[in-house]
Specification:
It is built from eleven helices and nine strands. The protein is an alpha/beta fold. Helix 10 runs antiparallel to helix 11. The chain is globular.
């Protein structure tokens, strides 16, 4: 299967240079790397010289949209699979693309996403969160898993995710004008249409952030808004049990590693997430 890689870019630094070098070293051939760059004036021209398969398309800042910009890039592709990545996600080894492609031997798999490993500077609590959301075991999710997994059935991250382009186009692609969560919206649609979403634990990228409680509030507010805007996808789906399970397991983990003071961080981060999520669900009643 032919594979293109799509990366939205904004004010790239050395991380993007390293990412392109690591993609060039992949043992599965990449047909094209499509960079959707916001603001041409901030793009170093020398980046295109790293690899002749890199193509850059520039857009104005007001044109950028999480779903719309990616959709535009996918429609530029002619490949069987399009791998969406972010500019700060680093392939952990040379087998990333190879492992992401494998689940697509099953024609009912319409999307697959990679495991995210923490950066070296990642805080202890966030490391545990990474291991909770991205475990060592691969899985393939279908609508039969909704009762067991709830909204986690729809989980799929464009930090590094491959999409079967034919099905992507049939289902209309990523929603336009969304503030966040275009990946889960499409994954949820695919699940409800009878497709499968594969989690590939052997496909690994290094990616993490040390978010503050306020940043967690902001992200979860946006997450809840995006879910509330699409009740046809998320309506009636159990959404909070996994979060409660993560809090309980994180608190136990702090005790297990002999660092009970980290429980304060778990509580403050979790409070930010919960408050942001609850307010995001009620965004229509909030002042602009």
């Amino acid at each position: 299967m032919e594979v293109d890689v799509l990366i939205p870019v904004y004010r790239p630094d050395g991380k993007l240079t390293e990412l392109l070098k690591r993609l060039k070293m992949q043992n599965y051939p990449i047909h094209r790397v499509i960079l959707m760059n916001t603001e041409e004036k901030h793009f170093p021209a020398e980046l295109t010289g790293i690899w002749d398969r890199v193509e850059v398309y520039h857009l104005a800042k007001e044109e950028f949209d999480h779903g719309g910009t990616r959709d535009r890039g996918v429609r530029m592709s002619t490949a069987d699979l399009v791998v969406c990545m972010t500019q700060d996600a680093m392939p952990a080894d040379e087998t990333l693309i190879e492992e992401l492609v494998k689940p697509f031997d099953d024609l009912e798999v319409w999307a697959a996403y990679a495991r995210q490993l923490p950066n070296e500077d990642c805080r202890e609590v966030e490391k545990y969160t990474r291991s909770f959301n991205y475990p060592e075991q691969s899985m393939v999710k279908t609508k039969e898993d909704l009762d067991r997994l709830g909204i986690k059935t729809f989980f799929c991250s464009n930090v590094c995710a491959a999409w079967r382009r034919k099905k992507y186009l049939e289902l209309g692609g990523f929603v336009k004008h969304t503030i966040f969560n275009e990946d889960m919206i499409l994954a949820g649609t695919m699940i409800k249409q009878g497709g499968k979403i594969a989690y590939c634990a052997k496909a690994k990228v290094i990616h993490s952030h040390n978010y503050s409680a306020f940043q967690q509030f902001h992200r979860n507010f946006d997450l809840a808004v995006s879910q509330t805007m699409y009740p046809e996808v998320f309506g009636g789906i159990r959404s909070e049990s996994e979060g409660i399970k993560l809090v309980k397991k994180s608190l136990s983990y702090c005790i297990k590693i002999g660092k009970p003071w980290l429980m304060i961080q778990v509580v403050t981060q979790s409070a930010g997430k919960l408050l942001g999520y609850k307010m995001g669900q009620r965004y229509r009643s909030l002042p602009m």
